[in-house]
Amino acid sequence: MSLYRLVLQSLALTLITSLLLVSSQPVLAGVKGAGELTPSGTVMINNAAVTSNVTLLSNSRIATMAGSSAVANLGSAGQVLIGENTDMMLSFEQTWVKIELYNGSVRVQSGPQSVATVTTRTCGRVEVTSGTVMVTDISGKKKDEVKGGESKEFMNKQGFASNSMSSPTDYRVVTNNCQVGAAPVASGISRRTLLILLGAGGGAAAAAGGIAAGGGGSSNTTPPPAGGGTPSSPNNP
Amino acid sequence: VIVRLALSIFLVILSLLGCYTAYGAGVAGMVARYAPQTELLEAAVRLAPGDPKLHYLLGHAYLHDLDNLDIQKAIQSLNRAVELSPNDYLIWLTQAKALERAGDLAGAEESLMRSISLAPHYFEPHWQLANFLVRIGKVDRALPEFRQALAANPEQLTYGLELVWQLSDGDLGLTESIVPLRATARLDYIQFLFSKGRYREGIAQWTGLPVEMRDGASWRGRQFIEQLFIAREYDLAWEIWHELPEIRGQMPVKGKFYNGSFDLPTEKFLAGFEWQFENSDQAKLSIDSLAPASVGRSLRIEYSAEGSPSFEHIRQFLAVEPGREYRLRYSARSEGLTGGSLPFVEITDARGGSLLNSRSEPMLLGSVEWHQYDLVFRTGPETRAVRLSIRRNADCRVEGPCPIFGRVWFTGFLLEVVDKK
Question: Do residues B143 and B126 touch, judged by C-beta distance below 8 A?
Fold first, then answer.
């Protein structure tokens, strides 16, 4: 009996000691929503410029300048491609992504078990690559469905909310000036044409020009050049 | 003949092989340089399968091209790139990213460590490891990595501080632990503290800097003073201002006028406790040698103002104590001063803007020789600084325009405590 009591007492003492030790340590918040952002060009997170891959916490305001973009990898929640001249608020957890798009364009790929919502405060366009997106105007009265391969304009000046209805869903939201009609999608030399050019030989330079003009919907995040990666001196600026 | 023929055939084959290899490498190189798109890179890799750069770029594309995301293919490409070029730290870094996304955290960490071993003084490997450790919840281990990365390149300091600040719930000790020793980084840290409203801690950092470092960054000091003025933290602003190299030699005293007799050169629009001027065509300000016997120089205001203009000609902030009685002394004279509304001296609480003196107009109408004026006022319980201004209001108390003409001089500004503590 006394042995049992002794064991109990030592357990309690250990518990108290460990609690005391833990409470005396500096408090580091758990990393609940942590993703990764890969910037290309001038990208700001919460008004701080980022030039290299960084950890992205939920509730971050992200802004890209002209000619700049970023890809946010949010783990199981999905991925977000942030276009140039974009200003947005990004919140996320493992099963959801919420974007408040003040201006610009985002492409969201929700994860297999996550829901993505993009709200705007102005007119805009929703382009769905795959899956189905439900678009509701800000009053919540008008609802519209945009399916894979479709693109629709929403002209309510107060904005709209778009929700992914399927998992995974891949769609893009672009804000535009309510006074002006939506700009046509930029045309350029298609990738197929580029491949044909390459196959024919000597077409690489033309291909490069074509890509620069066309762009398409994929990330333009360019990697740092490998090959120069064998260091010989410190990387001080 | 047979030998010659065989040799010729051999040479032709060799040339063809050379051409093919050169073509492949050339096209692959151009793709890598100008068009690093996934499909093109796949084609380029087929043309030059021994090029590590192409495998690296393809792996990178599989990680970032939203139309062609494929983590497994990314890992394959990056594994091949690493095999072909094992001493390239960038390839290891990208491989780490792919492994992390595939959920192989141990493998990712190993690749990051390998990258660091290849480039121990570079920013990127330490930065990526620090961020990786944050994402997997090992923040304690991330802090020294952040510090090492930022020591190599402090460009990302602000974001690093923001990240650690959020993760540590605003713990100053942990946040400061990533700040490298170099001067610009310390100054950026002060700016960060100010942005979080931690002015007192920012000032402690500033005063903790070596004097040479502060003197070399006096323009940053002025920026901090400006921000402290906006935040109405006058006591703290004074801490920076009175130690600025251009001020220190004058030995300014808190609660006293600085350059009250206009002996020192004056500059416009400097944030601090100096005179601040607002010149205009209708009221030209200048420093004049005319002054009473015991005083050096004076401020001259020359009015040529039709219509109904209002002016705040000049102002100075003075750090004072709350709940005390002060006496302001100054001298003034005029020449041919005419107008329904004359210039006056006003003292307001810098924080709230409430008037502390009776704003009485001096008897300056016409031409008046040097005369000394006294104004007694009491600071409020929250007053930390007062703002002395020489103003002219467009308030003639009659309908129509309210012009002013003539000249007026001010000098000999003194402030003293009247009551005893």
Answer: no
Measured between alpha carbons, how far is B284 from B275 in angstroms, rounded to an integer? Answer: 16
Residue at A92: amino acid letter: F
Distance from CA of B175 to the nearest CA of A (A): 11
Residue of B nearest to A47 (CA): B159
First and final C-alpha spacing in chain A: 70
Listed residue (A16, A185, A174, A203) closest to A88, CA to CA: A174
**Cα gap B254→B320, rounded to integer Å:** 7
Q: CA–CA separation, B109 vs B120, rounded Å? A: 15
User: Could you read off the pLDDT of A42-101 as tens digits, one per residue?
Assistant: 999 999 999 999 999 999 999 999 999 999 999 889 999 999 999 999 999 988 999 999
**Interchain proximity B159–A49, CB inside 8 Å:** yes
Q: Is B140–A28 a contact, with Cβ atoms under 8 angstroms apart? A: yes
Q: What is the pTM of this model?
A: 0.76
Token pair for B8: 């010729």
CB atoms within 10 A of CB B72: 10
Q: What is the DSSP string of B35-89?
A: ---HHHHHHHHHH-TT-HHHHHHHHHHHHH-TTS--HHHHHHHHHHHHHH-TT-H
CB contact under 8 A, A230 and B118: yes
